[in-house]
């Protein structure tokens, strides 16, 4: 039947090929088990990522099929055990001689379970650490070496450190444009040592002076052994601390104005344990969540990052709770994002998942509104959305528990009540619709020119 | 709108004078040159099965690599085919193309061929008004007439891409009706292996 446009036929492997590591069509009942085994192995091997097996109906219905052998990844995919020792030596020399070194920790540090090694390396050698958005949690944001997230909505101090460093040790990052801004001005004076398990990331967007292909923990250990001495970073660290005081993330929260989202995020953070898992949708709320929650542990920050898929927050919270039932899970969502997958509440109720959704409701697709204001002279088009449902009622209708939050005085109590509720709860938190996200690096702009207000853009 | 943060404005901050080019390579801003595009022959050893060609060509289209030709055919090893891909890219572009190819599951080995032997086959159909002239040009380019019918002669010839370009041009004066070209096939020069299982995506 395949290829004849039969009922519900779609070229599933063809459609998914560009977005998977591999997409298999299992046409033979006797080898389908091996194919599934290979797909799982490949998903885990090297740089992790999704694989797909398309199972035609006659294959899934087949009986008396051969048993699969032990699962094995495809022979053609080789993952190097360790980085080229010669490149390691050269990178270590550059690092030892650096005056203004920075570690850039990406999501690969977390996926590769290398947070511990990275922390040890940074602390042992006194190197300040900035992270990408997927790298949030790789380093403890309360540590004195933490400069937090860099890039479009990164902290001012992280972007200053990235702009002025002379050697950058980048681990498990693909140098996404939301991190780099324009590559012409990205770390323009830095030699870059790039550690990645995926060789195709080396020099893809930003040239790597020291390409180090391998597993993050292994390569960090190699570098540590090759490092004859730690760089002398006292002056540079003073400079970084100075930037931290010069560009604080201090926001105004006047009592007589609508709730500020930053305040709500901080209040949630204070109320919960350090290992609480945070998930988000896409937009301003996502940026406030990453900026104002203090992350200390890997795998506590779950977001769609470079893909920017609104609607990710609730399904991700459900997945996180199923995977880590012992941990508290909080989803910060936007009113727009939540509407895209809110039917997931039904799953959360069915599975009796104790998760808390906090909708930072600005009655707008706020991030779009912010760009229209900043880059299109305030000509707002389809970005304000005062027609959203009453989210508390919606939650109740699903059999979850709804709350509404409007006033500073109620923040602590409402958060406590929603967390106490045994099952999925949703707080419809009405925030100041005028609030914008800063700092901001304009698309393609220089990180060092981050704006602190609209006039700077 | 609200949400502003404290701190010196962008123009009040120090800014480094360094620059990178489009490829993310640090450069002297005074002496910036356009990165050079080069023609490179890549050879890939791939599984000889349906879908592989689509996978490879999809990759090149998706990533906007400039490709001049792509040919594929079986090898002496059952189940494996050789693909010859001619790309026109900057240095980092050629590297990227190789690395992205290696990530495809059906791709066993990829190499960039230096001093390769390159050949392309062409069939050129011309008018038969001047059979002696056609034969003379065909001979000059090492080709031969493989079909001589009423009104037309079809000439087969092999050569490098440039030689075939030149031959087609030379045949123009007899009136070229149609041309079919295979694209470049290539093997590494000398005793070097082209792309071989021993190179398993190193
Ligand atoms: C599925 C999808 N559609 C559109 C966009 C473009 N987009 C990015 S942010 C944003 C606004 C999101 O609104 P909301 O969830 O309310 O978040 P807010 O910015 O208001 O906090 C939009 C439309 C996207 N990223 N994903
Ligand atoms: Mg919104």
UniProtKB/TrEMBL annotation, chain B:
Gene3D superfamilies: 3.30.70.260, ACT-like. Chain A, domain 2
Region entry Disordered, spans: 1-35
CDD domains: ACT_AHAS (cd04878)
GO cellular component, one term: cytosol
InterPro entries (alphabetical): Acetalactate_synth_ssu, Acetolactate_synth/TF_NikR_C, Acetolactate_synth_ssu_C, ACT-like_dom_sf, ACT_dom, AHAS_ACT, AHAS_small-like_ACT
UniProt keyword annotations, A-Z: Amino-acid biosynthesis, Branched-chain amino acid biosynthesis
Signal peptide segment: none
MF annotations from Gene Ontology: acetolactate synthase activity; acetolactate synthase regulator activity
PROSITE patterns (alphabetical): ACT
GO biological process: isoleucine biosynthetic process; L-valine biosynthetic process
SUPFAM superfamilies per record: ACT-like
Pathway noted in the entry: Amino-acid biosynthesis; L-isoleucine biosynthesis; L-isoleucine from 2-oxobutanoate: step 1/4; Amino-acid biosynthesis; L-valine biosynthesis; L-valine from pyruvate: step 1/4
Top-level taxon of origin: Archaea
Compositionally biased residues, Basic and acidic residues: 10-35
Domain ACT: 41-115
Similarity comment text for this entry: Belongs to the acetolactate synthase small subunit family.
NCBIfam families linked: acolac_sm (TIGR00119), PRK11895.1 (NF008864)
Name of this chain's protein: Acetolactate synthase small subunit
Species, as recorded: Halarchaeum acidiphilum MH1-52-1
């Amino acid at each position: 039947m395949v290829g004849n446009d039969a009922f519900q036929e779609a070229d599933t492997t063809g459609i998914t090929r560009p977005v998977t590591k591999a997409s298999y069509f299992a046409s033979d009942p006797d080898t389908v088990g091996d194919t599934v085994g290979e797909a799982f192995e490949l998903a885990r091997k090297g740089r992790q990522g999704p694989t797909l097996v398309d199972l035609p109906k006659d294959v899934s219905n087949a009986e008396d099929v051969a048993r699969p052998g032990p699962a094995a990844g495809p022979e053609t995919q080789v993952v190097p055990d360790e980085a080229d020792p010669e490149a390691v030596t050269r990178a270590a020399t550059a690092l030892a001689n650096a005056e203004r070194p920075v570690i850039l920790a990406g999501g690969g540090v977390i996926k590769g379970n290398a947070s511990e090694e990275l922390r040890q390396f940074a602390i042992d050698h006194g190197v300040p650490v900035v992270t990408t958005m997927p790298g949030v949690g790789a380093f403890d944001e309360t540590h004195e070496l933490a400069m937090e997230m860099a890039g479009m909505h990164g902290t001012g101090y992280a972007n200053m450190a990235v702009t002025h460093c002379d050697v950058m040790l980048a681990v498990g990052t693909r140098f996404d444009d939301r991190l780099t801004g324009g590559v012409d001005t990205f770390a323009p004076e830095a030699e870059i040592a790039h550690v990645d398990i995926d060789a195709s990331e080396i020099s893809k967007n930003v040239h790597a002076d020291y390409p180090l292909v391998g597993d993050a923990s292994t390569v960090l250990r190699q570098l540590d052994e090759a490092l004859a001495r730690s760089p002398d970073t006292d002056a540079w660290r003073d400079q970084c601390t100075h930037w931290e005081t010069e560009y604080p993330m201090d926001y105004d929260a006047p009592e007589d104005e609508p709730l500020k989202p930053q305040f709500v995020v901080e209040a949630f953070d204070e109320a919960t344990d350090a290992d609480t898992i945070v998930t988000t949708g896409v937009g301003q709320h996502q940026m406030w969540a990453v900026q104002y929650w203090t992350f200390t542990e890997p795998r506590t920050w779950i977001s769609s990052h470079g893909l920017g898929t609104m609607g990710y927050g609730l399904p991700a919270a459900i997945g996180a709770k199923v995977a880590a039932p012992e941990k508290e899970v909080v989803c910060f969502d936007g009113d727009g994002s939540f509407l895209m997958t809110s039917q997931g509440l039904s799953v959360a109720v069915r599975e009796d998942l104790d998760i808390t959704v906090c909708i930072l409701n600005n009655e707008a697709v706020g991030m779009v509104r912010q760009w229209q204001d900043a880059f299109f002279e305030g000509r707002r088009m389809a970005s304000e959305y005062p027609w959203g449902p009453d989210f508390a009622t919606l939650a109740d209708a699903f059999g979850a528990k709804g709350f509404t939050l409007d006033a500073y005085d109620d923040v602590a109590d409402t958060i406590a009540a929603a967390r106490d509720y045994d099952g999925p709860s949703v707080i419809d938190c009405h925030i100041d619709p005028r609030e914008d996200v800063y700092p901001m690096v304009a698309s393609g702009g220089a990180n060092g020119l981050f704006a602190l207000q609209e006039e700077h853009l | 709108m609200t949400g502003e943060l404290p701190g010196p404005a962008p123009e009040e901050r120090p800014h480094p004078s360094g620059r990178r080019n489009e490829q993310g390579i640090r450069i002297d801003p005074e002496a910036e040159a356009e990165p050079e595009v080069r023609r490179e022959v890549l050879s890939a050893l791939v599984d000889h099965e349906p879908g592989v060609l689509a996978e490879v060509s999809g990759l090149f289209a998706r990533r906007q690599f400039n490709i001049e030709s792509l040919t594929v055919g079986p090898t002496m090893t059952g189940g494996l085919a050789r693909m010859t891909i001619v790309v026109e890219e900057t240095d980092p572009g050629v590297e990227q193309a190789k690395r992205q190819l290696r990530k495809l599951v059906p791709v066993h080995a990829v190499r960039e061929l230096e001093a390769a032997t390159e050949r392309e086959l062409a069939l050129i159909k011309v008018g038969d008004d001047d059979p002696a002239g056609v034969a003379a040009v065909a001979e000059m380019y090492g080709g031969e007439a493989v079909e001589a019918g009423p009104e037309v002669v079809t000439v087969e010839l092999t050569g490098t891409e440039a030689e075939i370009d030149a031959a087609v041009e030379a045949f123009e004066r007899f009136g070229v009706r149609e041309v079919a070209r295979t694209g470049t096939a290539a093997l590494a020069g000398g005793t070097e292996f082209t792309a071989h299982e021993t190179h398993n995506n190193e």
